[in-house]
Amino acid sequence: MTNIGSYDERLEAFCWSIAEEELDYSDAETKNIGWYCSDRICRMGKSGKPALIWEGHDGTMKQYTFNDVRLASNTIGNFLKNLGLKNEDRVCLFMDKIPELYFSFLGVLKIGAIVQPLFSAFGDESLHVRLANAETKAIITQRKHVGKVRRILDQSPYLKHIIIVDYDGKHPLREREIVFNLEESIPVEEFDIFPVNTESPSVLHYTSGTTGQPKGVKHVHYSLISQYLTTKWVLDLQDDDRYWCTADPGWVTGTSYGIIGPWSLGVTQCVLDKGFSAENWYQFIEKYNISVWYSAPTAIRSLMKAGDEIVKKYNLSSLRHLASVGEPLNAEAVIWSEKVYGLPFLDTYWQTETGSIMISNFPGMPIRPGSMGKPFPGIVGTIVNTKSFEPLEIPGDIGLIAFKPGWPAMMRNYWNNEETYQSKFKNGWYIPGDRARLDSDGYFWFVGRDDDVINTAGHLVSPFEVESALLETEQVAESAVVSKPDEINMEVVKAFVTLKPGFTPSPDTELKIMNYIRKKLSPLAMPQEIEFVKSLPKTRSGKIMRRLLHAQEWGEEIGDTSTLEDED
Ligand code: PRX
Asked: What is the pLDDT of residue 162?
């Protein structure tokens, strides 16, 4: 029996209060997500149940109960409080997927501060712009990443504390650095959890847009309501499950469904802090008897590429439910997974901004491979005309995805960017910026993004950010960045550049430019290909015509270039 039961029946009788009642929300002593994910679970009699089973890249394995999580997050919260950090201060988590990352997430929330998780592979500039935008007061990090923080310190006067969780005493600490060692700290049994209210800010995730700097998506503690119920009904987590969410908590999937969802349900989750390979992943599933697996299309396509034979070497019989998010999930991948695992990957669609799953294939519902499924009960979703923002009448017509605002996990704002936030609402709808079509049975089919943002391996990259970074290299005079198709990552970053006088196109120049971007932004943003051109196509007023280059890469009709030339 699935948690959701019948989708149609749930749809008819839906109210978010279902989650509030299950969570005893109105009577709870606090609305703090930190409390909900640890203390409350212990109070429900699960203090000895494993909360986290963790394996590191060197094979080290660690296991923590819900009581361990409660104590660790209390201890971190207490440490932060003693540093003078308080509610609504921004605290950045800049770590690999180590246990401290998961505990710190709850610890920061427990003092009422705002967690700002950042992907640890970010380079100096990516880190800097996000910290500067949020005026982050403290960063919790590891020795291996502290160099990046040191390099931006002069430009970061707001950053008061750099907390290192694995300091080995070998090198002297520098200005503003301080050590926190969880294993050597005295566990804090009783901690005064900050009494947030439903609208208190909780998590600040940064996401890239087409133009301008990345935007800080502000969520509040009330997001728990959506995250709890979608985890329960879509991911179908049950008490004896072993759950694996492969996403990094630097991104929203890794927090909404890699921390808050499973732990608010008191479910054991497993984390592998190791690079991808089919062997590593299958071994992990077999060793820890993973039953529910939430992953992403790029990983699934890579597993497909690794072939069917390797699957047979492992006992994957513990698996009972698979789901995917982040990019379009090809019908072939769904069909393939059903063939080799005996289970289809169920596609789910949502965004950093939506905070929780919006459209999905539900357990027990007939799935249509290649479709994202139907809206979660309580979510009113449709397809609207790209200009009038009126719902489209004819099934099958392509338009923009649109949701009626008001679900619990909806972002409350972009950090200090009210204008961009308001621009996301049209004619009473929230417009995520994706094109899709709706079939006559109410299934959504993804078509593409409605902007130039590149989705590479499920990660959004702003072409503008890469173009700006390219111009900072000593070689590049002009740049235009677009996506190009890729078998595994769906799309990758491609740059067209003209060179400054004195530089000539060569593999060496290409490598130097690529490395610069990797270090400054991140490996994801690094162009996989750089094409040296004599000039870039421009509009009459000198704006680079990215759309033309995009069409060229994707083999699409370029259309009437005279109109493109008029675009500004
Ligand atoms: O374009 C859509 C794509 O990823 C975008 C959201 O990215 P982000 O905020 O980084 O969050 C990713 C994880 C929740 C969307 O606007 N996207 C997400 N899921 C799907 C998808 N595209 C197609 N199919 C999906 N299932």
From this structure: 98
Spacing, Cα 351 to ligand 1 middle (Å): 5
CB-CB contact of 420 with 414 (8 Å): yes
On whether the CB atoms of residues 130 and 214 are closer than 8 A, the answer is yes
CB atoms within 10 A of CB 60: 9
Same domain, yes or no: 383 and 467: no
Clarify whether residues 52 and 147 are in a common domain. yes
Distance 328 CA to ligand 1 centre (A): 8
Going by CA atoms, what residue is nearest to atom 13 of ligand 1? 326
CA distance 266 to 47: 9
pLDDT at residue 558, rounded to an integer: 74
Among protein residues, the one whose CA lies closest to atom 14 of ligand 1: 351
Which long-range contacts (C-beta less than 8 Å, at least 24 apart) are formed by 154-157?
155/128, 156/128, 156/131, 156/132
Ligand 1 centroid from CA 459, angstroms: 8
Contacts of 73 (CB under 8 A, 6+ apart): 34, 38, 103, 104, 105, 106, 107, 110
Going from the first residue of the chain to its last (568 residues), give the mean pLDDT of each consecutive group of 10, the final group possibly shorter: 96 97 96 98 98 98 98 98 98 98 99 98 97 98 98 97 97 96 98 98 94 92 98 98 98 98 98 97 98 97 96 98 96 97 98 98 94 98 97 93 98 97 98 96 96 94 93 95 95 97 96 97 96 90 85 83 50
What is the distance between the alpha carbons of residues 144 and 147, in angstroms, rounded to a whole number?
7
Atom of ligand 1 nearest to the CA of 217: 9
Between the CA of 299 and the centroid of ligand 1 the distance, in Å, is 15
Please tell me the predicted confidence (pLDDT) of residue 566: 45
463 and 428 housed in the same domain: no
Task: Tell me whether residue 218 is in a domain.
Answer: yes
Enclosing domain of residue 220: 7-436
In a domain, 228, yes or no: yes
Quote the number of domains for the chain: 2
Q: Please tell me whether residues 223 and 342 are part of one structural domain.
A: yes
Beta-strand ranges (E) seen in 176-318 are 177-179, 201-207, 215-220, 242-245, 268-272, 292-295
Q: What is the whole-number distance in angstroms between the Cα of residue 349 and the centre of ligand 1?
A: 6
What pLDDT is recorded for position 541? 73
The protein residue whose alpha carbon is closest to atom 4 in ligand 1 is 326
Cβ–ligand 1 contact at 377 (below 6 Å) = no
CATH of the domain at 477: 3.30.300.30
